[in-house]
Amino acid sequence: MAFRLPAAALRPLRSSVHLKPTMQQTRWLATPTPFPVTQDMTSSRGPTAMVFLNMGGPSTVDEVGDFLSRLFADGDLIPLGRLQNYLGPLISKRRTPKIQKQYAAIGGGSPIRKWSEHQCDEMCKLLDQISPETAPHKPYVAFRYANPLTEHMYRQLLADGFGNGKGGRAVAFTQYPQYSCSTTGSSLNELWKWRQRLEGKAGPLDDGSDGTIKWSVIDRWPVHPGLVEAFAQNIEAKLQEYPPERRDKVVLLFSAHSLPMSVVNRGDPYPAEVGATVHAVMQRLGHVNPYRLCWQSQVGPQPWLGPQTQMSVEEYIAKGQKDLVLIPIAFTSDHIETLYELDEEVIGESGHKDTVKRVESLNGNPVFIRALADLAKTHLDSGIATSPQMSLRCPGCKSDRCHESKKFFAAQELA
Amino acid sequence: MAFRLPAAALRPLRSSVHLKPTMQQTRWLATPTPFPVTQDMTSSRGPTAMVFLNMGGPSTVDEVGDFLSRLFADGDLIPLGRLQNYLGPLISKRRTPKIQKQYAAIGGGSPIRKWSEHQCDEMCKLLDQISPETAPHKPYVAFRYANPLTEHMYRQLLADGFGNGKGGRAVAFTQYPQYSCSTTGSSLNELWKWRQRLEGKAGPLDDGSDGTIKWSVIDRWPVHPGLVEAFAQNIEAKLQEYPPERRDKVVLLFSAHSLPMSVVNRGDPYPAEVGATVHAVMQRLGHVNPYRLCWQSQVGPQPWLGPQTQMSVEEYIAKGQKDLVLIPIAFTSDHIETLYELDEEVIGESGHKDTVKRVESLNGNPVFIRALADLAKTHLDSGIATSPQMSLRCPGCKSDRCHESKKFFAAQELA
């Protein structure tokens, strides 16, 4: 079945975008050129590679060791300074048996690959419909610490006909709604590293380009209405499990992965963006229930941002508040931090498994997948390579890698 | 001139409110009673005392000593534990000469009283127009550490005919847009303390009431559209001072008063709500400029939430980013933290006074004052005493005062 050409395809670029035009785009608007017409207008700018970035997780218990060794080697996530290469392997080796047991307890591996591939596939199908001018959209997943690794994704892109003198367009779409240098920043640095290794030496072609892949980045989306709606619906569904007379008094505990205070104090934007997500969800819910934002998964002796999720649950129970709903607010699919840490440890050890509950993760939620498609469509229409916010380093940033990586993505010209 | 009766006065209560009705209100809706008709329907529920809560500041240099001694005596703001009564006076006495010099440098005193009284007066005039059913609205200001103190405000309320067997309605309206236990919480605890001292022993009257003042609370409003609009307009005005070719690259540095990490880790809601304000303002501005949220006014050796404002300015300048606009995002009028700390210290010592600037504070901004009136009108229409969020203590809270104060306000019945 052929795509019908939607009205949107006939509008000039940026028409549906909320960002102000940049200087360059203002000039473009001032001297309009005819909309380019090709024989196949429905895919005049495709194909487009849609690359989901996430941390990933071991799909089997046997992969736990490799996963942890990559994780503790990442100075963007766990800053161990000069001792990274020495301490990282030590810590990861020591933690492997314990973490293997946790993955065994949740069914033998993380479901994050399954969900990421499903979400990306389904989003690309929707995009082919709502953005035919950039179709076909080809789904890729690039994990930071597990298969499919960023390197493998990049090699696959090249094998599939992107780059290598043929150019082509790829969108790096972070699956962390809120930006942290530890998460999205680390994934982008890794993507930049492999891009430099695998395409960095490309020379100029006859047409003046260098035939490499043109990258653009969707770097954060903490208050996208579809994301907010998906969270809110899941919370409403969970609240239905409480008797009506107790329902409005249930305390909503939003829980996000914590950060070391050294990262917070450097100026990482994540805590403020998580706050924005929480407030947007509460507005959508009409502020009926009391709530708090707390932070989970602290490791090691250095100070991390609090209040801690487990402490918060224990303290509320001690105060007599036993109706609690936990909401993982900074991750879009199930993983060890929901299935083990929240379900087995925080809830399991609370002594009140009947009244302390967790909302469903977004996983295959169709409202969420439509939100992803809407985000991607808006981005593709915008013609921008990165948000102005992404190009700003943290005030306390000392990382040359961050500097170079941000410069690279911000300089991408999407003709 | 007589007020015309607006259509709103004929609608049942809560009609314009976004909050879901509580159980009690659901019952009320299920069995509607006729709207009460009085001879003077335009003020059937007035008069209403509108009480602005804020920290206050010394209006003259001579008041600095008293101001600081009250400030360092407040365990909600500066938790010194058992040593509060000993350490507080010591610290305040030692700091007085230095702080006196700062107030001398900004003209001999804080303008916060002038602005608070102006804002409250103007809001009450607007309310008399848009909420005639609760008119007349009588303006009061209650500061935590300076005149007019909460005690004096409460005595004035009684002298003006509220309470003392005559009942009457008063709204405690925090002037901190984002809720912290250190600020709004402390003001409410103080209000509750004086209410107990001055009205706590009232006995039952013939009509079954106790004739005391009925209190309700506007406890937070971090993303009110009028607040966001006022901030955004001030930022846009400041950006106009930069040449067009540099304007979109100016970094916006939102600056809020920091908190000790002990308060953050106890579960204080303030950091997340400040994050929500920042995001709402950036959305209104179309995310054109890069930005960061940073925190100012840390004192003492214990860890506070960062990144610090002064460090952020220094680091950005060191990175070559000299176009910076500072935005005080958690306070609604000028005070020592804007006029001295930001203007004299952060900007004055930056070496780049020509390119590092501060936006105007909200002060007498009519957009902001309309926002205050809209917040008050919505609250008065809602018929609720406190938000569900206000009645929830922090997970790590150990304060009996917080517990009792929250219980008191949440239990107020607005007939």
TrEMBL record, chains A, B:
Alphabetical list of SUPFAM superfamilies matching this protein: Chelatase
Pathway as given in its UniProt record: Porphyrin-containing compound metabolism; protoheme biosynthesis; protoheme from protoporphyrin-IX: step 1/1
UniProt GO MF annotations: ferrochelatase activity
Membrane topology qualifier: Peripheral membrane protein
Domain of life: Eukaryota
PROSITE patterns, per the entry: FERROCHELATASE
EC number, UniProt record: 4.98.1.1
Membrane spanning residue stretches: none
Record bears the keyword Membrane: yes
Keywords for the protein's UniProt record, in alphabetical order: Heme biosynthesis, Iron, Lyase, Membrane, Mitochondrion, Mitochondrion inner membrane, Porphyrin biosynthesis, Transit peptide
CDD domains given in the database record: Ferrochelatase_C, Ferrochelatase_N
Protein's GO biological process: heme biosynthetic process
Subcellular location: Mitochondrion inner membrane
One cellular-component annotation, GO: mitochondrial inner membrane
Catalyzed reactions per annotation: heme b + 2 H(+) = protoporphyrin IX + Fe(2+)
NCBIfam families: hemH
Similarity remark: Belongs to the ferrochelatase family.
Functional note: Catalyzes the ferrous insertion into protoporphyrin IX.
Protein name: Ferrochelatase
Organism of derivation: Triangularia setosa
Lineage: Eukaryota, Fungi, Dikarya, Ascomycota, Pezizomycotina
